[in-house]
Amino acid sequence: MISETRTKFTSWLKSPRNAVIAGVSALAIVSVGTMSAFALTGTPTDTKTAQNSVTTAESTENLQNTASDSQNAAPATTAPTETAPSTTNTTTHTNTAPATTPQAPAAPVAPTYSDSYPAEWKNGCDAIDTWGMTTCQSSSYAAFKVNEAFGNMPKWGYTGQGDVSHWVANANAANIPVGTTPKLHSVGISGNFSAFVEAVNNDGTIDVSYYNWQYNKAFGYKTSIPASTYSNYIYFGN
């Protein structure tokens, strides 16, 4: 029954007029279906809209892929910019020496010389010392200082020539140099008084130590006195 009906419909459709009617009928059926779908959902079925939706979905996926690629891409490296130091010094430093108040030069301090004369002699004056001199006299003190400085002093007192007034002659006889210019540790002679030269200063003055100045039988010293204070100097160390 079905085959017979299909055969009849096929023969009928071969007619051009019938083919047109069939196409119109099919189109009407499709339109009715579309209108029915719109009535049920309220949204028209548009083929172009569907294509645009597919395109939009593809664009969204492409944007997501682009963002993902951007995150995975290595961060761009920006070379630091070096700024050359400025050669212009905008700050001017002025070195100003602090004001100083000139001070008066300190007064020179006179040296101090100690008494090294043996205690038994200074406490027992008018005895005879090692060189035949009378203790606490200028001759005995000078003989002691010469022996202290050089380790040797002639025993002039035992010859009767121990008085200082004989010392220049005694030195000449013993080939001990004598002069008028003071030297360190020489003995200055003035009349019958002697003094031991402790220092010769840059200005030509001398420092001397002695015993029995003005017959006091005691130790004393003077600083920065003229070299001409003594007429002769005996150089026992030379």
Structure in a nutshell:
With 238 residues, the chain is α+β, with helices and mostly antiparallel strands. The protein has helices at residues 2-13, 16-41, 47-72, 119-122, 138-150, 167-173, and strands at residues 178-179, 187-190, 193-200, 206-211, 219-225, 232-234. Helices cover 37% and strands 13% of the residues.
SSE inventory with pairings:
Blueprint: H1 2-13, H2 16-41, H3 47-72, H4 119-122, H5 138-150, H6 167-173, E1 178-179, E2 187-190, E3 193-200, E4 206-211, E5 219-225, E6 232-234
Antiparallel strand pairs: 1-6, 2-3, 2-6, 3-4, 4-5
Q: CATH H-level name of the largest domain... which superfamily?
A: endopeptidase domain like (from Nostoc punctiforme)
According to DSSP, the number of beta strands is: 6
Query: Uncertain runs with pLDDT below 50, 5 residues or more?
Result: 27-58, 72-85
Content-based structural category: alpha+beta
Order of helices and strands: HHHHHHEEEEEE
Query: What name does CATH use for the topology of the largest domain?
Result: endopeptidase fold (from Nostoc punctiforme)
Spatial strand order of the main sheet: 1-6-2-3-4-5
Alpha carbon gap, first and last residue: 173 Å
- Give the DSSP E fraction (strand runs of 2 or more residues): 5-15%
Query: So how many helices?
Result: 6
Instruction: Indicate the multimeric state.
Output: single chain
Could you say which overall geometry the principal axes of the C-alpha atoms support? elongated
Helix content: 25-40%
Radius of gyration: 70 Å
Overall tally of structural domains? 2
**What is the arithmetic mean of pLDDT?**
76
What is the architecture of the largest domain at the second tier of CATH?
Alpha-Beta Complex
Task: Please identify the top-level CATH class of the largest domain.
Answer: Alpha Beta
